[in-house]
Specification:
By secondary structure, this protein is mainly alpha-helical. The chain folds into 2 domains: about 190 residues, no CATH class; about 45 residues, Roll (Membrane-bound Lytic Murein Transglycosylase D, Chain A). It is about 45% helix and about 5% strand. It starts with a helix and ends in a 5-residue tail after the last strand.
């Protein structure tokens, strides 16, 4: 095991000792919306498919550093078994819904993850953190900006997830997040090509040219002058609303050239 990875694991065993665990089996799992737009329902015809039996991919992506952190924290076998059962029931119906909604936005979420230099696993975070599946992919993906700068700090990752999670059993939810990432990664699932294409186009964001690392003393005004764009456009691109507060070291999308 690489030294950096070993350090993360050791930190988390210390981190976990601060928790007093109760049974996580009964936690409220994610419920994916079954209310899909009529034009999408017509394209899907019968959904979810009955007696669906997905097969494992021939080549599997190895867990990234953030997944390793999740695996260390969310390691209760009974909870894992309960969650897996819920996703397998009725012909993997729940997994089919998770995959459908993930396919709607996965290109946008992956692009944003790449822009912020986050591990691949982070591109699945909006799926379980977003409260409205039908919202804009870019709007739901803005939550990924909250993970910028964490890098390999496992404790900071868990603390950030806990801050963003709106529910009763955070540890139970972490188990589900861990499992959903692997289910969507490891199984050969329908990509639903063409299903969502007319509903929302993927906005192209240049990976490097449109990402600015905030330096000490910089403000939205100084950035607007530097890049010759309006303050409002920067606020909109980064989901800041009317706030003008930006933090040193954070990354901002600069919407010039889009």
């Amino acid at each position: 095991m690489p030294m950096q990875l070993r350090k993360i694991v050791n930190i988390f065993f210390m981190f976990l000792s601060a928790f007093i665990f109760t049974s996580s089996i009964a936690f409220s799992q994610t419920s994916y919306s079954t209310e899909i737009p009529p034009e999408i329902a017509v394209k899907l015809r019968v959904f979810p498919i009955k007696n669906y039996e997905p097969q494992l991919k021939s080549e599997l992506r190895a867990p990234d550093v953030w997944e390793v952190v999740l695996n260390v924290v969310a390691n209760d076998k009974d909870t894992q078994s309960s969650i897996m059962k819920s996703y397998r029931e009725e012909g993997y119906a729940k997994l089919q819904w998770a995959n459908l909604w993930n396919n709607r936005c996965k290109d946008v979420w992956r692009l944003l993850s790449d822009n912020y230099h986050l591990p691949i696993s982070s591109s699945y975070f909006p799926l379980l953190l977003s409260k409205e599946e039908n919202c804009s992919c870019e709007l739901s993906g803005e939550i990924l900006l909250q993970f910028d700068g964490i890098n390999d700090d496992g404790v900071a990752l868990i603390e950030r997830l806990e801050k963003l999670y709106d529910g009763d059993d955070f540890i139970g939810w972490l188990h589900e997040l861990r499992i959903v990432i692997r289910l969507l990664e490891n199984f050969e699932l329908d990509e639903h090509k063409g299903i969502w294409e007319t509903r929302e186009k993927v906005k192209k964001i240049a990976p490097l040219d449109n990402l600015h690392k905030v330096l000490k003393g910089e403000t939205l005004y100084s950035l607007s002058v530097l890049y010759k764009v309006s303050i409002e456009s920067i606020q909109e691109a980064n989901g800041l609303g009317e706030s003008t507060n930006i933090s040193e070291g954070s990354s901002l999308i600069i919407p010039y050239g889009l």
